[in-house]
Amino acid sequence: MDVQKNSQAQQRAFVLSGGGARGYAHLGVMKAYEEYGVSPSAISATSAGSIAAAFMADGYTTDEVRQLFKEFKIGLSMQWKNWKAGFLSLKKLEQVLHQTLRHQTFESLEMPLYITATNFITGEQMIFSQGDIIPAVLAASSVPMLFPPVELGGVQYVDGGLSSNLPIEPLVGKYTDIIGVHVNPLTPYSKASGFLFNLERTLHLAIRESVMKNRLLCQEFIEPEGLGQFGMFDFGKFDDIYKSGLDYTREFLARKDA
Question: Which residues catalyse the reaction (predicted)?
C-alpha cells in the first residue's frame, strides 16, 4: 500500500536508534517518508542507525543505500555464528564505508549529521559532528562484549545506545519537528526464551527508560511492532526487516491523513 505524497515536499529532522540487524528497518521507514514527500533536514543516530544515517547524509537515496547493504553484505560478518575469540569484527563495515562514502568528514556533508557513542570510562554520551565520519560510526556501533572499544583521541568509546538509544539530544533546541525511529519494540516475556533473547531483553530494559523520555520530545515516533520477531543478529533477513519498517510506516502515515 502506497501512501499519497504531500503536495509540497517537506524536510524534517530524524533520530535513528540502534538495534543490530533491526537497523535495516530504518531504510524502510525512511523510504515510506520519502514516498510521503518528507526528506531529512538533519539526522542524529547511533549504532545501527548511524550506518544508515551516514549514507543518507552523504546524499544516497534509500533505494541506493538498500542496494549497498545487499551488494556488500554489510552486517553478515557481524553475525553471532562468526563470533570467535570473544570479539566480532567491524573491519568489513569499515572497509565498505571507506569504499562507498563520497564525503568522509562531517564538515563536507550538505546535511547536519550527529553520531553518538558512549565514553567507556565515564558512561557519558559523546556527540560527533566534526572530523572523520567513519571512526565515529565504528565507535557508535561497538557493542561491549561483542566488539572491541574504538579509541578516538585517547578515549575508548562503545555503542551509543548505552547512553541514549534514541539520541535526540543533538537536535533539541535546533529543530522543532522531529521524527523518532526506534527499532527495538519490547516483546512479551517468555520463560522458554533462549540465551540470546534474554540477553537482548536485558539490554533493552536497561536502556528503555531513556528511550521513552526522549520519545516525548519527538513530534512523531515510529516503532514497528513486527520487528519484535527479529533478533539483533538476524542479518540474513534483510528483506523481511526492511519490509516490516516500510509497511508499518506506510500504514502510520496513511492513518495520519485519514
Answer: 47, 159
Q: Out of 58, 159, 163, 244, which one is annotated catalytic?
A: 159
In a domain, 258, yes or no: no
Rounded Cα distance between 107 and 129, Å, is: 8
Q: Give the β-pairing of 178-181 and 125-128.
A: unpaired
The pTM of this model reads 0.90
Yes or no: say if 120 and 159 are a contact pair by the CB < 8 Å rule.
Answer: no
Asked whether residue 255 is assigned to any structural domain, the reply reads no
Residue 159 designated active-site? yes
Give me the CATH number covering residue 66. Answer: 3.40.1090.10
* 256 in a structural domain: no
Taking only the tens place, the pLDDT of each residue in 179-208 is: 999 999 987 767 767 766 677 777 777 788
- Strand locations in 57-154, DSSP E? 113-119, 125-128, 150-152
